[in-house]
């Protein structure tokens, strides 16, 4: 039996209580936490804490589809990736006349605008932290609550939508409310693109 076949057999072999599941990093962390409660020596506790940090970084069972862990805050590289993603996804919305029509419709009802913006925020959060494309860590949240990556992605996509729709003459700011609503429609697509552009490369 080859080594690979032996490994597979070990992972799926059955014991007295039924088939054994493959151990996960969470199981290792549970054992380390129990051990931590019993250790008294400061040097040993420090080494154990470092081992637990490494185990969390190597948590392969919770990594995303593309196998990376996105760590750190939101730096210039992330901002550039979000900008590229927002432009790629947003250009079709910029040249589509339907964007202006939908924006004008939304302008007629504040609840529609609020719903559109709320939907965008929820969707971006889902793409970054829930959809499991990558495992994304929350680092130094704004005010201790709002993920910095969320703020960066939404800010860049909003600024890009506003700037391009203005420069390309797609909105008329003599009617600011309608113009803002039209920009918000383009912002939806750009926010999706910015989120994907930021997280898919990994970092």
TrEMBL record:
InterPro entries in UniProt: DUF2391
Coiled coil: none
Region Disordered, residue ranges: 1-23
Domain of life of the source: Archaea
This protein's UniProt keywords: Membrane, Transmembrane, Transmembrane helix
Transmembrane recorded as keyword: yes
Name of the protein in question: Putative integral membrane protein
């Amino acid at each position: 039996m080859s080594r690979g076949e032996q490994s597979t057999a070990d992972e799926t072999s059955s014991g007295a209580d039924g088939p054994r599941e493959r151990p996960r990093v969470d199981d290792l962390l549970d054992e380390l936490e129990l051990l931590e409660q019993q250790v008294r020596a400061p040097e040993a506790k420090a080494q154990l804490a470092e081992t637990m940090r490494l185990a969390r970084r190597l948590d392969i069972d919770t990594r995303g589809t593309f196998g990376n862990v996105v760590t750190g805050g939101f730096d210039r590289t992330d901002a550039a990736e979000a900008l590229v993603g927002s432009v790629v996804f947003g250009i079709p919305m910029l040249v589509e006349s339907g964007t202006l029509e939908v924006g004008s419709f939304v302008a007629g009802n504040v609840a529609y605008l609020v719903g559109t913006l709320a939907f965008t925020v929820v969707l971006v959060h889902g793409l970054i932290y829930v959809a499991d494309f990558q495992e994304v860590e929350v680092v130094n949240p704004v005010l201790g609550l709002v993920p910095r990556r969320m703020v960066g992605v939404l800010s860049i996509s909003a600024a890009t939508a506003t700037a391009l729709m203005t420069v390309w003459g797609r909105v008329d700011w003599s009617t600011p409310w309608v113009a803002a609503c039209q920009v918000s429609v383009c912002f939806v697509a750009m926010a999706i693109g910015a989120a994907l552009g930021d997280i898919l490369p990994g970092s």
